[in-house]
Amino acid sequence: MRIYLIGFMGSGKSHWGRLLSASMKVPFYDLDDVITQHENKTIPEIFSEKGEEYFRMLEKELLTTLTEANGNMVISCGGGTPCFFGNIDFMKDNGKVIWLNTSTPVLLQRLMKEKNHRPLLRDIPDYEMKAFIVKKLHDRKLYYEQAHLVLPEETLSLEQIKSAIEHE
Ligand code: S3P
């Protein structure tokens, strides 16, 4: 089975992806890390040197490659992955899609500390971060909501994720 974890930046996709894959004994991929290795550049470098459009093309290409190469895997997507080029439909057709739904205050708290690693956030002044998250989340909900499973992230346990997948 292929599991695709989606959700906003800072929603815990990589954390839960690692735990879930270890427990399911299937390979784990963090799509941002795969992109970074493929280009031998950091995500902010790719955005600034080649632009977001290039990043999104690569994101789609590597999502497809990983899917074709692995019948069983857990993949933690980037926050924008489901929102471009029909990726949400592709993921739904090829596995189970789980939205880790994390509340705005928790996202804000986490992202304030990690702004500089994220090209979409690094130039936003601290006082505008909350408004940015609220707006971006609102725009992206349209895609996130299409997931097979929506799990509130802050109170989550590994058992809950596994049981939700089993009963889906
Ligand atoms: C992005 C989220 C990032 C990364 C890139 C763009 C987004 O991934 O793919 O900076 O559009 O939300 P994380 O969600 O892992 O931070």
From TrEMBL:
<feature type="binding site">
    <location>
        <position position="118"/>
    </location>
    <ligand>
        <name>ATP</name>
    </ligand>
</feature>
<dbReference type="InterPro" id="IPR027417">
    <property type="entry name" value="P-loop_NTPase"/>
</dbReference>
<comment type="similarity">
    <text>Belongs to the shikimate kinase family.</text>
</comment>
<protein>
    <recommendedName>
        <fullName>Shikimate kinase</fullName>
        <ecNumber>2.7.1.71</ecNumber>
    </recommendedName>
</protein>
<keyword id="KW-0808">Transferase</keyword>
<dbReference type="GO" id="GO:0009423">
    <property type="term" value="P:chorismate biosynthetic process"/>
</dbReference>
<feature type="binding site">
    <location>
        <position position="79"/>
    </location>
    <ligand>
        <name>substrate</name>
    </ligand>
</feature>
<dbReference type="GO" id="GO:0009073">
    <property type="term" value="P:aromatic amino acid family biosynthetic process"/>
</dbReference>
<feature type="binding site">
    <location>
        <position position="32"/>
    </location>
    <ligand>
        <name>substrate</name>
    </ligand>
</feature>
<comment type="pathway">
    <text>Metabolic intermediate biosynthesis; chorismate biosynthesis; chorismate from D-erythrose 4-phosphate and phosphoenolpyruvate: step 5/7.</text>
</comment>
<keyword id="KW-0460">Magnesium</keyword>
<keyword id="KW-0067">ATP-binding</keyword>
<feature type="binding site">
    <location>
        <position position="56"/>
    </location>
    <ligand>
        <name>substrate</name>
    </ligand>
</feature>
<feature type="binding site">
    <location>
        <position position="140"/>
    </location>
    <ligand>
        <name>substrate</name>
    </ligand>
</feature>
<keyword id="KW-0547">Nucleotide-binding</keyword>
<dbReference type="GO" id="GO:0008652">
    <property type="term" value="P:amino acid biosynthetic process"/>
</dbReference>
<keyword id="KW-0963">Cytoplasm</keyword>
<keyword id="KW-0418">Kinase</keyword>
<comment type="function">
    <text>Catalyzes the specific phosphorylation of the 3-hydroxyl group of shikimic acid using ATP as a cosubstrate.</text>
</comment>
<comment type="subunit">
    <text>Monomer.</text>
</comment>
<dbReference type="GO" id="GO:0005524">
    <property type="term" value="F:ATP binding"/>
</dbReference>
<dbReference type="GO" id="GO:0004765">
    <property type="term" value="F:shikimate kinase activity"/>
</dbReference>
<dbReference type="GO" id="GO:0005829">
    <property type="term" value="C:cytosol"/>
</dbReference>
<dbReference type="GO" id="GO:0000287">
    <property type="term" value="F:magnesium ion binding"/>
</dbReference>
<keyword id="KW-0057">Aromatic amino acid biosynthesis</keyword>
<dbReference type="InterPro" id="IPR031322">
    <property type="entry name" value="Shikimate/glucono_kinase"/>
</dbReference>
<feature type="binding site">
    <location>
        <position position="14"/>
    </location>
    <ligand>
        <name>Mg(2+)</name>
    </ligand>
</feature>
<dbReference type="Pfam" id="PF01202">
    <property type="entry name" value="SKI"/>
</dbReference>
<dbReference type="InterPro" id="IPR000623">
    <property type="entry name" value="Shikimate_kinase/TSH1"/>
</dbReference>
<keyword id="KW-0479">Metal-binding</keyword>
<keyword id="KW-0028">Amino-acid biosynthesis</keyword>
<feature type="binding site">
    <location>
        <begin position="10"/>
        <end position="15"/>
    </location>
    <ligand>
        <name>ATP</name>
    </ligand>
</feature>
